[in-house]
Amino acid sequence: MSYEAFQLLSRGGVTFDKSKPEAVLFSKHKDTKHNGKISPKLQTGEIPLELDFFKYAQNNQGKRKKDNSDSSPGKRRKTDRDEDDEEDIEVLAHETESRKPATSHKIAAKGANIPPFIESFGALQNYEKYAVPHHIFSNLKSSGYLEPTGVQTACIPIILKDRDLVAISPTGTGKTLAYLLPLFAKLNTPAASSELPAGVRALVVVPTRELAHQIHNECLKLAQGRKWKIVLFSKASANALSHKAARDKVDIIISTPLRLVAALQEGNLEFTNVQHIVLDEADRMLDAEFMNQIQEIVGACNRSRVQKAFFSATLPAGAEKLAMDMLEDPIRIVVGLKDTPLPLIAQSLTYVADDPSKLPSLLTYLAQPYNPPVLIFTSTQTRATSLAEELVLIGISNVDCLHAGLSHKEREDAVSRMRRGESWVMITTEVMARGMDFKGVREVINYDFPMTVQSYVHRIGRTGRAGREGKAVTFFTDEDAPYLKMIANVILQSGFTVPEWITKLPKPSKMKRRQMGKIKRPDAVNPARSIGRRDAIKQR
DNA sequence: TCGCTTT
């Protein structure tokens, strides 16, 4: 790294505004000409303004600094398109009441007898119709939720009608509330204060401990004021629930799957009264590694009718098939385009030649003005740890590291530091890729190239949450060529640009075949050369 | 397809 970069970094070349509010305010937004017209009729049409999650994009403090002097190798200059988008964000961010959102988003709904979308949280106050406990509304308000997002308008009435559901909505658009709110209505009364049949009634299953923790916190906010018993399942809480009397008072358990399976096998838990199962990050939960556990959990829920709701921002066809096979007469909701990042996230690719070139490129990046905290993804725990160590040695302030190889306490502490704004540069792995909502994160760097579109979409979705803008930079080396085009396609589809030569790369399948054949490209300095090697590939 | 996650 350059001496100047080192100087800048070691004297703390960044500033961080700790006063940045974490809470987002949702704008009250009525467009009367659509009022009263909300019905499944507009299932595949354009979503009315008041249903669009972008309407609450009014939080504009801390506009990011311009990064127009990045000299990383292969870094693309800002294009006209980028400038346009920035204009849009600016306009969008300033609007409060009546202006049109810059991006129109569609909600597509498929299935039989789809319940009408709700217009507002206020509409849910019709207790005879929806049975949402009244204290939920004041808790919504005090948590800053004023109007529902797109996924919430569609999914809340579906879950209230006890229908099975697959819901796909982009990162940071409020999926958690879309299932938690109706769960409280379905449960209606805390088990502790009712004569209902006893036992756990709802499960929320998620892929990581940190995400379970975060959802538990959201759940507690909604539960305030009544005796709801919401359990973040852990070894400790599992022991606490080993007595049936304690279990009978539990309303909702939030957990990772293996913990639940362990408790089931130990006989410390039974799901005979479970009426609702939510799989968050559903495509991840239906991966081969989790599938057996999920089946065991679902199988243990042996009531005649168990409502299932699956949520994610991404759902590859294979996972969707698995999901649909588990559901009864399901409704499928898609907000925006499946497997696509939010347009508010500015995406770019940065060519870094090879692995040893990554660190200098990162230091160049960090030497420019940036908005901490920056979230940096690596491909392995070891690489996360060693990159963090190197940055600390170099003298960069407030570097942090979080992966599943750390102890529970180390993981919790790292998340806390992140939430308090103490981490400026957080190095992490896939464990942080899904669901985590650090509202201050404005910039994500893929230090190691993501292996799937889903990984890419979720990683960069750690920024641009709840209508804020965000920025995502992805490093790529010659070795990433087999996966480059599919990520480039996502970026292009979002309306951003990639180096033109990438669009001319051969089909990924051919690249993969070459990789599997272990044909090494000679040390390619100029990436454009790889185009010329198509013929050699064809001859194989 | 990898390593990631999961008592």
Question: What distinguishing features does this structure have?
Answer:
single chain, 540 residues, Rossmann fold, 2 domains, 8-stranded mixed β-sheet, DNA-binding, RNA helicase activity, RNA-binding, nucleotide-binding, DDX52/Rok1_DEADc, RNA helicase
Describe this structure in words.
- The chain is α/β, with parallel strands linked by helices and 540 residues long.
- The protein has helices at 3-10, 80-94, 127-130, 134-142, 150-160, 175-187, 209-223, 235-240, 244-247, 257-265, 282-285, 288-300, 317-326, 358-367, 381-394, 408-419, 453-460, 481-493, 500-503, 508-516, 534-538, and strands spanning 107-110, 165-168, 202-205, 230-232, 252-255, 276-280, 307-312, 331-335, 345-351, 374-377, 399-402, 425-428, 443-446, 470-476.
- The strands form 2 sheets. An 8-stranded mixed beta sheet has the order 1-8-2-7-6-3-5-4, sandwiched between helices. A 6-stranded parallel beta sheet has the order 9-14-13-10-12-11, sandwiched between helices.
- Strand 13 (443-446), helix 17 (453-460) and strand 14 form a beta-alpha-beta unit.
- The model is unreliable at 1-104 and 517-540 (pLDDT under 50).
- The protein binds one DNA strand of 7 nucleotides through helix 10, helix 12 and helix 20.
- Residues 58-87, 509-540 are annotated as: Disordered.
- InterPro entries: DDX52/Rok1_DEADc, DEAD/DEAH_box_helicase_dom, DEAD_box_RNA_helicase, Helicase_ATP-bd, Helicase_C-like, P-loop_NTPase, RNA-helicase_DEAD-box_CS.
- Residues 358-506 form the Helicase C-terminal domain.
- It catalyses: ATP + H2O = ADP + phosphate + H(+).
